[in-house]
Design brief:
By secondary structure, the chain is mostly beta strands. The chain is about 5% helix and about 20% strand. It has one helix and five strands, in the order E-E-E-E-E-H.
Length: about 80
């Protein structure tokens, strides 16, 4: 897969690169909430379910709990 060149970050302080653990802290440069994704300054496509697509094509699975557990959340889990 061909890797696209991501423009150099001009933010101060500079956004974290896509290979760092704090990569999600990069600034959003394009947002499409109606489609459920945003493009970050470091080239990551971040999805609303917290999944990610890195600039090198690697897929990061969603990493937030999406299931509701009443035993943990109590009354807040009642639908």
């Amino acid at each position: 897969m061909e890797q696209r060149n991501v423009r150099a970050c001009r933010h101060t302080p500079a956004c974290p690169s896509a290979d760092r653990a704090d990569r999600e802290a990069a600034h959003t440069i394009v947002a499409h909430p109606e489609q459920g994704w945003s493009l970050l300054c470091n080239g990551i496509v971040l999805f609303d379910d917290t999944g990610e697509l890195l600039p090198n094509g690697q897929v990061i699975a969603p990493h937030r709990p999406t299931d509701v557990h009443p035993e943990v959340f109590g009354i807040f889990a009642v639908a």
